[in-house]
Write a structure and sequence with these properties.
single chain, 16 helices
Length: 635
Amino acid sequence: PGVLCFSVSLRASWKRHPPPRRVCPQDPSTQALVCSILCPSGSLANMHRSAVVLGLMLAPTLSTAFAPVSGRAFSLALAPKASAFLPRAGLTTSKGKGVRSGILGQQPLGGRTRSNPFVRSLAAALATHSSRTEKPGVSLGTSDTAPDAWEGDLIFVPMFAPDTEDKEALAEVVGVAKTMDGKTSGAITEMVEQNEFKGGAGQSVVVRLAGSAVKKVCIVGMGKADKFDVQAAMKFGNTVATTVKSEKAKTAAVALPSEVKDDTLKAIASTLLSSLYHDTRFKSDVEGNKPAPIEKVEFLDCKAENPDTALAEAPQFVEGVRLAKDLVSAPANFITPTYLASVAKEIGKDHGLTCKILEKSDCEKMGMGSYLGVSQGASEPPKFIHLTYKPKGEVKKKVAIIGKGLTFDSGGYNLKAGAGSMIEMMKFDMGGSAATLGAAKVIGQLKPEGVEAHFIVAACENMVSADAMRPGDILTASNGKTIEVLNTDAEGRLTLADALIYAEKTAGAEEIIDIATLTGACIVALGQEYAGWFSNDDDMADSLRESFKTTGEKGWQLPLPAEYLEDMKSKIADLKNIGGKGGGTITAALFLKEFVEKAKWAHLDIAGPVWSDKAGGATGYGVKVLSDYVIKSGK
């Protein structure tokens, strides 16, 4: 108090102002944000840095005041007493002189559109605070209470499919199902018979129990017992989440069969929490879109060796997944390179990671012509993000995770146009960076021993303008290799090229994994659920394959045939950025391989699983497998 004085007034002025490009998320189509800041006109060089500091300080108060209001604008004025704070942020005041006003995300009044970095950065900083979904308010834990003695809203009773070749055989009422059947006067047997319940994975039936301490019981199919694995556990966890939402339960219990071990318990818990993800950031009717009321889920009869550890780690993995979903789901007028940089800073501050942001001038000094070639057509400045986690004690291995960070991909002059171009979905072209930042959050929370981890994102937009790269241009990467750009829509590999060089040469990584929504060809080859992945080292491939198995995320290894590299060679430069008509996923991977010298390397193409309309949108794919790989690298 007294250091920073400000006033916030809400007023219905949006009719007088055009909607800004970047606003608070409650109603992006109608809100206008009007800002008045006391600062000297000569401070523009430092304004972007100052605005982030100032915006993050003001964001909690502003978003709290703004949350209940839809279709409004706010004006912000710093009183003269703010001068005690502003010098620390790189700003000064001079008794009201140099006042700048404007719509956040657009222009200062009388200036060129979006030319004021202070206004633009303050808008991004404010959006950083308010563009996140809320953490599910449910607690998970084990209980010694017997299933037939538990009391609450909803209990889940798992049932395996019978071990027989008879496809018409019904699930057997045994184990905990038999115990609950006796408690409920034969209700379980009746549910099985009346619904022809066979115990298939994901199959479920719910019934209300009159006059019982348990209001409802749900039998859930687990598939065959000898095939119960992480994938089956994830289906079970999703069924639990779907049912507690549909039944509006506040308390629930899950009676666990003896087949549930630490890995499958963690999979059940993490999928349950992930499936409770609720995104109303861009809804005006928040009251009509409330999250599930579930408050507590207890696991009964747990036979896992370390259930407390499994249930403690699951929410931390889910927090990384939730961050990735938030980033991928939000539109490109919120998720900009500047926004991603601010998220990285937040992760670093919250979890003790070192955060370094390279600006355009820094990248120019390092010769990142491939990356900067992609960004040069956009008005949004590029941000090269580098988060570093260092463990206490000995470092056994240095690992780098690189995420493609195209916050919007128009295709450039090879514009995405026509049916099937998916230009309206190109907000998810930063899915690799979302997974990378999500993994950074997980690692920052769990703090594994023995591994130094670098999380790198070359963030930018690929837009069309007079300054944009053209088909036929030749770019020079930071290792001196030249690239003939035959298609401006094959831009992700260009940004990753300089990021790979940086990870090996500057960060000193011994193992590198890049993750990207890179090719539509991968969706053609593997569909929507599987990532295609490659590696130049068999031992690394084995470790990555184990992480896929442990986390349940689906991936399929593809080959790196050397003869296909011929398709990527240019007659006038070292490489082309596209190959021939076939094998587009493979030739893209071979292109990336050219920018790795001695490090072990793997590439994940997540164009398919990054998004699922069936699952409700962004999936958060990649966070778990990357986090698991990093953790195991230090053992």
